[in-house]
């Protein structure tokens, strides 16, 4: 999913690149470049912009994760000025008027409106489904166990709401000016350039597009390339590090053909909802395991051992927690019929009830996998479980441990048959680095 998102975000980044090129070389630049691409959803010019963005962001993949934070600092400073400047510019060009309502010919009421609202809400949650899973990739760099709490608690609901509001108002102003419902605000910026190719407009469009490209670059690295890198490091730590995993993500992203996913908003939201059914079940299992079953207790040294007796080998030679696998599959299963109906599988009729379950895909997958996993752990406890009865016994077993000499302690523990080691929570750190 990180690879798919990396590709999609790079395609979105090609739009501001295109506007910058057109601001410099002429608004008719796309028509001056011959099209030999052979796809109805992309041209040679649009692919060129996509590849330019891909090449520019590639060097940032070679930077260590804790050093790339300076890019986010630049992004945090510039983006608010560009976003609010774009909003003010749009509303002023619309003479202070914005269009209200659905801005389409579809005006749902009653039950149809309720389900349309829920589907939109699920689309928003699906957008966050990858970040819910890979947030520990960044939270583990926190200096304290509460550092990541307040930033996420404030920024995600508030700042994302502001971002969405700016996009809605710009689109509404664009509809007032051009009578077209542009589902991407960048397309409204493109109309500024097309309808008024003056020096001031060209400068304004170039600067806003430049900042939007930086914002897209930061988002792609933080949410996608690093996520893929850390996951691949966990799979093959002997051969792959975060940098190599990020490079692999970028290379494979060229094969995704994101222009087909982004051809229409309906295709994009369908793709979002589709893979959210798999990620929601993962989130349900992870949260059930950490907050209910283990109560914050993690024995770090056992994580780095595949010897018999390690808590995380789960009593078998392959280290498979079958309870998690069953919980995951149970969370995915109820959404599969609706998923088949949504993608338009031929000769298959899906009931309205199954489709409505799918419309609630994230909640359904999350709570079913969460409940099934906890139930299985109740009857079949996992190794290292700190309480006997996970439904009745109380207690929270998160502990702070000094890991200054972690490597020495870990090697020493491997010599012991009982695999003893310090108890440590996943948020702990040493010298600004983490050992997970």
Describe the structure.
The chain is mostly helical. Among the domains are: 2-95 and 183-263, no CATH class; 272-396, no CATH class. The protein has 18 helices and no strands. Helix 1 packs across helix 3 (44-57), helix 4 (69-93) runs parallel beside helix 7 and helix 9 crosses helix 10 (242-253).
What's a quick, concise take on this entry?
The protein has 436 residues and is mainly alpha-helical.
The percent range for helix content is 55-70%
Q: What is the 3D shape?
A: globular
Find the structural class using helix and strand composition: mainly alpha
| Alpha plus pi helix count | 18
Summary tags:
mainly alpha, disordered C terminus, 436 residues
Lay out the secondary structure.
Blueprint: H1 2-25, H2 29-32, H3 44-57, H4 69-93, H5 110-134, H6 136-139, H7 147-178, H8 185-195, H9 199-235, H10 242-253, H11 258-261, H12 265-293, H13 300-303, H14 322-332, H15 336-342, H16 352-359, H17 361-379, H18 406-414
Helix pairs in contact: 1-3, 1-8, 1-9, 1-10, 4-7, 4-9, 5-12, 8-9, 9-10, 12-14, 12-17, 14-17, 15-16
């Amino acid at each position: 999913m990180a690879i798919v998102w990396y590709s999609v975000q790079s395609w979105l980044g090609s739009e501001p690149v295109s506007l910058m090129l057109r601001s410099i070389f002429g608004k008719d630049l796309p028509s001056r470049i011959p099209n030999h691409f052979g796809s109805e959803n992309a041209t040679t010019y649009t692919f060129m912009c996509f590849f330019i963005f891909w090449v520019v962001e590639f060097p940032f993949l070679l930077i260590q994760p804790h050093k790339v934070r300076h890019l986010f600092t630049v992004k945090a400073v510039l983006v608010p000025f560009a976003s609010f400047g774009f909003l003010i510019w749009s509303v002023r060009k619309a003479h202070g008027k914005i269009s209200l309502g659905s801005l389409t010919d579809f005006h749902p009421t009653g039950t149809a409106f309720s389900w349309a609202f829920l589907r939109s809400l699920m689309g928003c949650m699906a957008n966050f489904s990858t970040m819910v899973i890979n947030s520990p990739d960044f939270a583990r760099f926190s200096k304290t166990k509460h550092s990541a709490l307040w930033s996420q608690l404030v920024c995600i609901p508030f700042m994302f709401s502001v971002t969405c509001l700016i996009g809605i108002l710009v689109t509404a102003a664009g509809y007032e000016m051009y009578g077209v419902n542009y589902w991407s605000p960048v397309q409204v910026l493109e109309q500024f350039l097309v309808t008024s190719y003056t020096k001031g407009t060209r400068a304004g469009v170039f600067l806003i597009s430049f900042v939007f490209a930086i914002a897209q670059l930061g988002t792609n690295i933080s949410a996608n390339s690093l996520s893929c890198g850390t996951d691949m490091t966990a799979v093959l730590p002997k051969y792959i590090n975060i940098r190599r995993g990020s490079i692999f993500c970028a290379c494979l992203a060229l094969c995704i053909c994101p222009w087909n996913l982004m051809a229409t908003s309906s295709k994009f939201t369908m793709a979002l909802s589709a893979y959210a059914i798999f990620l929601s079940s993962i989130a349900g299992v992870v949260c059930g395991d950490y907050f209910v079953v283990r109560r914050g207790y993690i024995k770090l040294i056992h994580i780095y051992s595949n010897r018999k007796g390690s808590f995380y080998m789960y009593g078998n030679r392959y280290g498979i927690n079958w309870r998690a696998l069953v919980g995951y599959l149970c969370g995915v299963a109820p959404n599969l019929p609706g998923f088949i109906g949504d993608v338009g599988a031929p000769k298959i009729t899906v009931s309205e009830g199954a489709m409505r379950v799918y419309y609630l895909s994230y909640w359904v997958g999350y709570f079913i996998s969460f409940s099934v996993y906890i139930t299985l752990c109740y009857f079949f406890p996992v190794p290292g479980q700190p309480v006997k009865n996970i439904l009745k016994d109380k207690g929270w077993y998160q502990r702070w441990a000094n890991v200054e000499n972690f490597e020495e302690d870990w090697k020493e523990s491997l010599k012991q048959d009982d695999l003893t080691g310090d108890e440590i929570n996943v948020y702990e750190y040493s010298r600004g680095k983490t050992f997970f």
